[in-house]
Amino acid sequence: xxxxxxxxxxxxxxxxxxxxxxxxxxxxxxxxxxxxxxxxxxxxxxxxxxxxxxxxxxxxxxxxxxxxxxxxxxxxxxxxxxxxxxxxxxxxxxxxxxxxxxxxxxxxxxxxxxxxxxxxxxxxxxxxxxxxxxxxxxxxxxxxxxxxxxxxxxxxxxxxxxxxxxxxxxxxxxxxxxxxxxxxxxxxxxxxxxxxx
Length: 197
Ligand SMILES: [Mg+2]
Description:
This is Response regulator. By secondary structure, the chain is of the alpha/beta class.
């Protein structure tokens, strides 16, 4: 199994080849190559690499702009390659989607640790974001269940405990989730509970 799927983007084909070799020797898979920012966006969409190693100065579209678009559209981070050390560039490179920054000439000694760290960080960020989404979803369901419970209390004159237990029993009998039953109650302002009461 490869250590990660990468895309290499640089308008100098020799440098691209060098980087590709360094990555492959270190156990990474290079799934796509591009020589400008526009093509990089297209190929990122198609191949969905884990990480992009991308030159800044390129024809058609520069690496900074392409990296921003790719991160916003597909959630893929970039390590930037540049021969320039202008402050402005470094300031821009501090944006969230830039997971590393290497100054040319690129050596294996710099490249491989940067790639390792970037892939690790990006996986960590993704799992955190996944957890947050999961929590938000659970909280949303809890809110819907509360609301549905209120409706049952109202419509069937139940106390809170009874309304909740009724929903639980209904779930078990119908093998539906609390969320599904809540949605049903919210939509119909009723539940076939007479057999349960
Ligand atoms: Mg260039």
